[in-house]
Amino acid sequence: SESSKVSYAVMDETDLIILSDNILEEKSREIRSQCFLRRKVAAWILFVFFLKISYFYCLAEEKIQPTNGRSFQSIFTSVKFPQSLASRKNEKQQGMVESLHNENSNNEGNKRQMSHLNKAAKDFAATLPKRNENDIALQSLLLACQSFVSFLQKTAPSAVARDFENNLRKIEKSTTVAKIGRKVSLSAFLKAERDSEIHSRRHSRSYTLRDPSGAVGLLWMRRSLAFQSDIYQHLLDGSSPKHAALSAYARQLEPYHGWSLRKFYTLFLSTNMPSTRDSMLEKIGGGIHHEFTPQKRQQTLSEMKSLLKVWEPLLKGWTQAFVELEMEDSRKV
Hints:
Layout: H1 2-63, H2 83-86, H3 96-104, H4 116-125, H5 138-155, H6 158-172, H7 175-180, H8 186-195, H9 214-236, H10 241-252, H11 259-272, H12 277-285, H13 294-324
Helix pairs in contact: 1-11, 3-4, 4-5, 4-13, 5-6, 6-9, 9-10, 9-13, 10-11, 12-13
């Protein structure tokens, strides 16, 4: 009887061990079957967290503006050009510059400052080729873009203004500028940088531009200006700010953005544009009157048309310079 009790006890312990092994094996199979799903969910949580952090950071930067209108100036130092170049802004302009000035001047013009749109039109008009030239002047282009940075910081979403300024800084810090300077044409600058062999060319027709470099900075600045140009055109056509921004983004920037950047910019532009067309026009043409009167509204629309007339041949020549030198890098970032 004693031996039978021991055998039964041993059998009971064996059964318990087998039962425990079966339970552990079943749990292990369940855990393994859920690993892929858990990893996928974790990846999505990390992406959404990163997207929200980026969104709220840009939103905070958009709302927190110093009194002088510069955003985070202590972090993002602006590009500074020699004082001798800045003096060129005061020189007498010919052709389109004079016509723009006469078109937008009125009886109050001498009593107030030039509007932001008129100043941008004047600066960019100075970059267009003169009668005896056939290419864009790099020095004038950089000065106009440097002046346009402050305009973007006051009128455009912070991410757009910061991206434009960072690309301008790439040109200023490029080795090509250090070698040949800025008193050259845009095509001459691009050709000099291409001949320096810092950009690669393998199986495709176009060069793969090195980042950072002067060429990649000029490429993305041109795309940013084309983006702004499309927004202004949509506003002139009567579109809402949100529709104007998303339509311009889809045409000018989205083809060159990867999945994450597309999601970020779509969300950012959908939530950070002014709610009405008039509020957007007031933001673009503001700084002269405290109230956005019908006269001021019409003046802003007229100045936007003048700026677009300058940008159209500028962007066309800018694009042509890249295409002719086979440096139109269409990769996604």
